[in-house]
Amino acid sequence: MSPGQPAAAAALAPDVTLVTHRGLPGGAPDDLLLAAALRARGLAVRLLPWNDPEADWQAGRLAVVRSAWDYHHHTAEWLAWIASTREQTLLLNSGELLRWNTDKRYLRDLLRAGVPCIPTHFVEPFTFCETLPGGHPAWIVKPAVGASARGVRRFAGHELPTEGRAYVNRLAQTGAVLVQPYMAEVETARERSLVFIGGRFTHAFTKPAFSTGATGSTAIAPHRPTAAELEVAAAAMGALQGEPAYGRVDLVPTPGGPQLMELELIEPDLGLRLEPRAVEALADVCLAHAGRR
Q1: What is the mean pLDDT of residues 69-90?
Q2: CA angle 166, 170, 175 (to 5 degrees)
């Protein structure tokens, strides 16, 4: 206890802060499951929006980002929050991983590492692009910073049509853009999400393509991954600099094998409600980190 600090204040200091957002400050159902598991381990827990102006992040030993679902609407503030908060407490996932994962151009790094990913054409910010990929029946255009299908549009055509090129160039005036072939399997076979906690695979589920709205409200169903899906997911997690406390690897099955759509390290719905052992595993990871500061 620091000199002059009231005993009551010290007693109330949280061991773990589960980071939420203003739209759901008290957390999602999975957050409440995790909070209960942490309290069962004797840890003091609070739930707090990442952009709460009154928050004292230094008061807690550990901040675990769980449902910061509006970060992509406030990118500059989000990146500033990461930089500031990592100096005040221990962040999970780490500040480096959170920052890296904020911009979907991280797919370049995974492609370079040999991870099978959906082919992606990257359009840099403030550029005007006339030549875009062709040779596919339909295309997906999305901003490099986004979540819950925000800004995602599908365009039909062997080549990206004029309307699609105009949309790419409009998005590029505010940030980087990704152009990818539309994979029909995301609707016929659903996305496959493989969850890793503490570096180990825990469970998997499927979810609808292009889900919108609050994460956690998506209709998910348990999934038994194939050996090929496990291999691709493990390769994606193994390509990271530093081991994340948690991560979700989103794959799509294709005739050539599973391909990575996105690697979610910031605020993914981990489907903890489907797998009680995963709740306990994440609580154990948080417990181990809470003792390091």
Answers
A1: 97
A2: 135
